[in-house]
Amino acid sequence: MADIEFTRDGHIAHVRLNRPLGLNAITQEMDQLLLDAWNEINADPDIWTVILSAAGEKGFCIGADVSDGAERKTRMALAGGLTGIGGPMVTLKKPMIAAVQGFCVGGGFELAMCADVIVAADTAQFGLPETKVGIIGEAGVVHRAVRQLPYHIAMGMILTGDRIKADAAARYGLVNEVVPYAELDAAARKWADKINAASPLANQAAKAAVLGRLGYPLEVALMTRFEPIEQYAESADKREGELAAGERRRPVWTGK
Fold it and tell me: What is the dihedral sign for C-alpha 209, 214, 215, 218?
């Protein structure tokens, strides 16, 4: 079995970390496979949504594998550049759901925060252990954490290395849903189906607009023209949405 499993089910792509004995720590080979997966997902119009998951009950991902002490030879960065740690940033154009269980710490925590929706098993624990063990690198995870959590909660985690459990993560707005571990995959699939019930092109345009002006003042975002939104206005899916509304039926999207 590959350490990264990449499969498709209709319009859903499944990317699964498959190294449970190592708590899904990401090796350099896995980094390359993830990069390949993100690039293929971005390029394929028939993929509308992504579910990122991990094998084994104990851990979603504990970050980069540093067990062999070898220096990384590439600059793709942890998780194929999706997180932007030490390498080029890869932006996933399609909506992504992260299904998280067990330990989700360090770079693994950052990888989960790259998702648009997080579904957590009740076993999940989120943390930033770097300073607790005397490590701090490019620290992409701290920048995401302080943007996705209340400031004092994020700083408390950063400065102490303490973890928060799934129920607390839900209270702070970090995760969308908490379910028993046995229901995790089904819950992630339910979210993917709900997302795919909307226009895939509209979703992609909306995500591009959100990410494109996330760090800007509101007035700048409101004055910005977004090319994906303008392109969507001329799409077959836009016309299908209008036609379906007039006929009082569910639209049939084609992603075109």
Answer: positive
Q: Note if 110 is an active site residue.
A: yes
Among 37, 161, 60, smallest CA distance to 119 is for 60
Extended beta strands in 95-198, E state:
96-100, 103-105, 117-121, 125-127, 163-165, 177-179
* Total-model pTM: 0.94
Q: Is 130 a catalytic residue?
A: yes
pLDDT along the chain (256 residues), means of 10: 94 98 94 95 97 98 79 74 84 97 95 97 94 73 93 96 97 98 98 98 96 93 92 94 96 95
Determine which one of 57, 110, 219, 227 is catalytic.
110
The one catalytic residue in 29, 57, 130, 183 is 130
